[in-house]
Amino acid sequence: MRTVGELLREWRHRRRLSQLDLAIAADVSARHVSLVETGRSNPSADMVLRLADQLDVPLRERNVLLLAAGFAPRYAERPLDGDALPAAWDAIARVLRAHEPYPALVIDRRWNILMTNRAIDPFLADVAPDLLRPPVNMVRLGLDPRGLAHRIVNLAEVRSLLRTRIGRQLATAPDPELTALYEELLAPGSEDASPAIGSEIAVPMIFRFGGRELRLFSTTTTFGTPTDITLDEIAIESYYPSDAESAAYFTTSGAGADPRPRTSGR
Hints:
It is a single chain. By secondary structure, the chain is α+β, with helices and mostly antiparallel strands. It has 2 domains: 4-68, lambda repressor-like DNA-binding domains (434 Repressor (Amino-terminal Domain)), CATH 1.10.260.40; 86-263, Beta-Lactamase, CATH 3.30.450.180. 41% of the residues lie in helices and 12% in strands. It is built from 11 helices and 6 strands. A 6-stranded antiparallel beta sheet has the order 3-4-5-1-2-6. A hairpin with a 5-residue loop joins strand 1 and strand 2. Helix 2 packs across helix 3 (30-38) and helix 2 (19-26) packs across helix 4. The longest helix has 18 residues, at 155-172.
């Protein structure tokens, strides 16, 4: 088992900080950081968490650090349902309902879809059934020809955008399953001549749907100060029309008529 010092040093290198940078941020001496990393000082649980906070270590990995230092985990991981996290469930449901008639969904750290609003349903009407068996993965759903890929006009741009986002995510918090998904669907290859993207905000997703082209852009919402691993790892992806014609489609087609959010795979 790796020591807490080795793990902290790895996270510091990943954040491209010197020992002095981390020491200043955590209000400790650089010598103390050095002693912890080399195993010559055994940090308290509070010190582990103080350093982890400055290194922006995800809650799941903070538990790993605590265990490596000989302490019990501090952060629970509970299912996102009405019994375990009722306040969070209600807040997310309200966000999804409020966003209708435009599409919105909730994803976990591996881009599995946990919940959607009703405006998503028309987009899934002709998706291959096996792609909709839980857990439904948003990346696979979007890039598979049997999923949404045949509807996405600017598929190369969307793939490039996903490559950028997930590549950045993996650089921040490595995950074996997400890495495998990236290598399978997003790693650059001879078949992929995706254009460079200058600004993520400016790139729409263009869907060919209902006899017209719908232009959408997305925003991502996360919990600001989560103390539960589940909440720390989820995000709400909300889609907005980029032009008046796309907006008109959603406001006149009845999309999202039933505002109740529903689970869509874990």
